[in-house]
Structure formats: C-alpha cells, structure tokens
Amino acid sequence: MVFPLMGSFFWNSRRLSLVMIFLAIGILLWMGIVSLRFLGSFLQESDRVEHSWMVLTSIDRLFSELQDAETGERGYIITRNPSFLSPYQSAGKKVRGHLQDLEHLVSDRPSQEKRAMELGQLIDKRLFLLGKGVALGKSGISPHPDALLMVMLRGKEVMDQIRHQTQSMKSSEYRRLRRRSLLFYRTKKKVLPLVGGGLAASVLMISLSSLFLSREIDRRVQAEQKARKYAEEVRNLYDYAPCGYHSVDREGIFLRINETELSWLGYRREELEGKKRIFELLFPEDLPLYQNAFQGMLRGEPVRDLRLRFLRKDGSVLPVLLNVSVNRDDSGKFFSTRGVLLDMTDKRIDEEKILDLNRTLSERNRQLEVTNGELEGFSYSVSHDLRAPLRSIDGFSRILQEDYAGKLDAEGERVIGVIRNNTRKMSNLIDDLLAFSRLGKKAFSWSLVDMEALIREDILPGVLSGSEKGTGVDVTLSPLPRAWGDRTLLAQVWTNLLSNAVKFSEKREKPSVRVEGRVETEEVVYTVRDNGVGFDMQYYDKLFKVFQRLHAQAEFPGTGVGLAIVQRVIARHGGRVWAESQSNEGAAFHFSLPVRDSPPV
C-alpha cells in the first residue's frame, strides 16, 4: 500500500520539482558548511598577497621618483638649463604622495611602519639637499667647488641610506609574500574542487527542477489557452450576436457596444465608447420614455420589451425592442446597464420569435456571467498554485544569500541572484494579472481629486525612490486642474504613467519628465511627457493590450500590464487614453476625464 502512494507522489511533476529544489538547497548548505573554514582563509590570503604586491610597487615608485628628482637637480647644476627643474619639481611632489601611500599600506605591521617612518626622515633630508643644490645653481654665480662637492657627497650618503632602507623593506615584504603565496595556493587547491563540485551538483538539481516545473507550467498554459479560446468564443458571441448589445454608465455614456449594434447605427466603436451618451442617439419623441426607464435602472429596476427608435449616423430611424438588466458593484449599487436590442425593422417578425430570442439571449447572458466567474476562479487558482513553490524558492534562496553573504564566490552569488530575480518577476506578473482582472468589479468612491497634491505627495516619492536612477530625473509638475474620480484608481493611473516615464528616460544623459493638464469644453486632459527612448507608432495598436511590450524585457523590465490597467481605469471613469511618440525622441501619454460639477448619481 505504501509503494503506490510513493509512486504517485514522485511522478507528480510539481512535487518532484520541489524535491529537486530542496536537494539543491541541501547540497548548497552542505557545501557552505564544509567550505566555510576554507573560504575565509582563501579570501584573506588573496587579500594579503595583493597587499604585499601593492607595498612592493609603492616602494619601487617612491625610489624611482626620488631618482628622477636627483637627476633633475644634477642636470640643472651642470647645465644651468631651467628645463631640468620641471622633472625635479614634479618628482619632488610625487615622492611625498608615494611616501604617504606607503605609510598607509604598512600601518598594519609595526616593524615595516617603523622602517617607513625612518625612510620618510631620510627622504626629507634628501629633498632638502636637492633643494640646496638647486639653490646653489640659481645663485647667479658659479658655486664654490667645495660647497657643491659637500652637497653632492652628503646627498650620495643619504641616497645610499635610502637605498639600503628600501631594500630592507622589500626583503621583509618578499619574505612575507612568499609565505602568503604558499598559503594562498594551498587553500585554493582545496577550495576550488569543493566549490566547483558543489555548484555543479546544485546546478544539476536546479536544472532538473526547472525542467519539471516547466512541464507543469506548460500544462497550465495549455489550460489557460483553452480558457482564452473559450473566452474568445464568448466574445465573438457577444460581438456578432443577431442582436445589439451595449452597456452604459450612470450618465448614459456608452461603456461597451457590440459590432452588430454598431453596424445598425452606422458608427465606429471609437466614436461611441467613452464619448457619446445614449440619449443623443434616441428619436426626440422617444427620449422622455427612455429617460423615465433610465431612472428606474438607476434604482436597480430592469426594463422589459421597451419599444424605441434610434437615429442612425446618417439620420435614418432604427426601430428597436430594448431589454435591460442592471450590473451592480460589490456593495450592490448601480454600476452599469446591460442592454439587448432587437431590430424591429422587419415587421414580419412575430412576437413569439422575439420572446424566444429574448429568452435565448438572457440564457447566454447568464452563461457569460458564469464564464466570467470561471475565468476569475481560474486566475485565482493559477495564482494560488504558483505562489506556493515561488515563495519556497524565494525564501530558501534569500536564506542562503543572507546567511552566506560574502562567503560564496561570484558565480554562486550570480546563480542565487538569477533564481530570486526570476521568482520576483513571476510573482509580479501574477499580481498584475489579478489586479487587472479585478478592476472591472472594484466599487467607485467618487471625490474631487486634487491631482497636483496627489502626484507630489503620494506618487512621486515612491516612483523616484523605486527607480535605480530616479533621483537624477528632472520632474516638472505644472499646475493641474482637479477632476471627479476615484482617488485610489487615479493614483494607480499616475503611478503607472510616471513609473514608465522615469523608466524609459533614466538612461538619457539628462532625463526629464513633465506633467501637464488643461481644461477643455467637455473634458479635462492630463499629459505625461518624457525624453526617453519612445516607440514606433506603427505598433500603437499593441500599446494598451495586456502582456504586449514594445521593448525587450532585458532592457526595460516590466510585466506589460500597466498601460492596460490605465486604459481600463480611465474607461470606467468615462474618459479616454492615447499616446504620441517617435523612436528615440521621447513619448507623450494623455488621458482625459469628463468635466463634472458633481459626482455621478
């Protein structure tokens, strides 16, 4: 009975991948414990060897510069040519700089520090004698041979002492270097095979776990594709049903409309959605009838078999039979309508067929609601099932990174960094996907929003601190008009637009972002401009779609959901979103909100 259970466990790809990850982490922990005592001494001896070479190099540079100063002094005394003073003066300045470096390098060894101090005293004497010789050359008369000879003999005596002192320091440092090099190579010989073998084993385990996890993801992707295909079929049913289908908000502005109704009315989608009110399309004599029914809709009352006449774009009349149900938000308040139109132009359609068709459409509406619920449940299930292994991978990787910081070599740190970075990317993708799917049901909290204060106090600090070079971006915030809307949702719009502007411009020499606003006749327009990389307008149709990116992930990280969220939020406010750009010449993103004197009823 035990063996079948074990088989079912190990043949589950997700569980098997987790087992592999735990094994890899176990190997890395074992490798860290075993190599801990070697790794510290390895790094310490490496630093000591490098330090000894720096001491030797500093001594050689110091003595070389001192010789250059001596050569310049002698050349000037012999030839009286001022050109010899330049190397003398330059070398004199460099000697003191090299002496300070040397004293700092040997400060950890009292014996060498003492020699360095003695060497400094000798160098001061030599520089004094060099200066005295140059002064004799500058006196304007031929110096007395005895005085000149005394200066040169005394200088040679001091130089011999300096040479002896430097040789003494170098001999001591060479002995120390030989001891350090021997310890360094012994430690290296032990550490490298151990670290290499451990890393190879852990990489193998992680590769196997990635393979199994990839299979699990492929299976889920196939399920998601199937769900998307089903959703697309539902969308086609909505758009090309044999009836008109539309939704309007509290002010009667079209939120959605299907292709069938658009073809009946003769309008394009962008001419109606988010722009026109349904009252503008009604036959004048039927307007009071619909307004009375609309007040009932705001109270949550459905409309059944209302006969109306619409005006097409060309001015002709379209007789319809309207049925409307009401969409409510999470608090049970009116959110939008869901209207079904039947073309009554053909008088031969009998009432029975109309009622049958209406019942069919109502059933399909119910199916659509069920499908949306299933898609939402699917999104939650995917995010929940994927978060558990992600949290495990990220948690153990973080423990390894923190507990063994500075003890792993660069390749080990890089491998852990790659694991954590990809875990964060997948987690962000799940979060953005869920946030996007929930936007359509979030209840509105209307208020008069001070856009300028919202950006300055709540948005900019987080955007700039979250960017690698955000503090270097020049952000210009012009006076912005206020507008009615949901402050939380509008904060999300500003965060996404400003984060994109900073991200795509921060690689410029002088990155800049400008925020502007203006009030027009029927709408308030806001603009975010940057001088970043921009985009090619031929790909504009992909800009506001979910997971559509116009730049490489490696160059500009992101999930491809931010602009889709912006468009959905602004559409719920009854506004519109658009953009203008050219490659490598920056971009301007605009959005508008309707001008209102008060929040919608």
Automatic annotation (TrEMBL):
<dbReference type="Pfam" id="PF02518">
    <property type="entry name" value="HATPase_c"/>
</dbReference>
<feature type="domain" description="PAC">
    <location>
        <begin position="304"/>
        <end position="356"/>
    </location>
</feature>
<dbReference type="Pfam" id="PF05227">
    <property type="entry name" value="CHASE3"/>
</dbReference>
<keyword id="KW-0418">Kinase</keyword>
<dbReference type="InterPro" id="IPR007891">
    <property type="entry name" value="CHASE3"/>
</dbReference>
<dbReference type="GO" id="GO:0000155">
    <property type="term" value="F:phosphorelay sensor kinase activity"/>
</dbReference>
<dbReference type="InterPro" id="IPR050351">
    <property type="entry name" value="BphY/WalK/GraS-like"/>
</dbReference>
<feature type="transmembrane region" description="Helical">
    <location>
        <begin position="191"/>
        <end position="213"/>
    </location>
</feature>
<dbReference type="InterPro" id="IPR003594">
    <property type="entry name" value="HATPase_dom"/>
</dbReference>
<dbReference type="GO" id="GO:0030295">
    <property type="term" value="F:protein kinase activator activity"/>
</dbReference>
<dbReference type="GO" id="GO:0000156">
    <property type="term" value="F:phosphorelay response regulator activity"/>
</dbReference>
<dbReference type="Pfam" id="PF08447">
    <property type="entry name" value="PAS_3"/>
</dbReference>
<feature type="domain" description="Histidine kinase">
    <location>
        <begin position="381"/>
        <end position="597"/>
    </location>
</feature>
<dbReference type="InterPro" id="IPR000014">
    <property type="entry name" value="PAS"/>
</dbReference>
<dbReference type="InterPro" id="IPR036890">
    <property type="entry name" value="HATPase_C_sf"/>
</dbReference>
<feature type="domain" description="PAS">
    <location>
        <begin position="230"/>
        <end position="301"/>
    </location>
</feature>
<protein>
    <recommendedName>
        <fullName>histidine kinase</fullName>
        <ecNumber>2.7.13.3</ecNumber>
    </recommendedName>
</protein>
<dbReference type="InterPro" id="IPR036097">
    <property type="entry name" value="HisK_dim/P_sf"/>
</dbReference>
<dbReference type="InterPro" id="IPR005467">
    <property type="entry name" value="His_kinase_dom"/>
</dbReference>
<dbReference type="InterPro" id="IPR013655">
    <property type="entry name" value="PAS_fold_3"/>
</dbReference>
<keyword id="KW-0812">Transmembrane</keyword>
<keyword id="KW-0597">Phosphoprotein</keyword>
<dbReference type="InterPro" id="IPR004358">
    <property type="entry name" value="Sig_transdc_His_kin-like_C"/>
</dbReference>
<dbReference type="InterPro" id="IPR003661">
    <property type="entry name" value="HisK_dim/P_dom"/>
</dbReference>
<keyword id="KW-0808">Transferase</keyword>
<keyword id="KW-0472">Membrane</keyword>
<dbReference type="Pfam" id="PF00512">
    <property type="entry name" value="HisKA"/>
</dbReference>
<dbReference type="InterPro" id="IPR001610">
    <property type="entry name" value="PAC"/>
</dbReference>
<dbReference type="InterPro" id="IPR000700">
    <property type="entry name" value="PAS-assoc_C"/>
</dbReference>
<feature type="transmembrane region" description="Helical">
    <location>
        <begin position="16"/>
        <end position="39"/>
    </location>
</feature>
<dbReference type="InterPro" id="IPR035965">
    <property type="entry name" value="PAS-like_dom_sf"/>
</dbReference>
<dbReference type="GO" id="GO:0007234">
    <property type="term" value="P:osmosensory signaling via phosphorelay pathway"/>
</dbReference>
<keyword id="KW-1133">Transmembrane helix</keyword>
<dbReference type="GO" id="GO:0016020">
    <property type="term" value="C:membrane"/>
</dbReference>
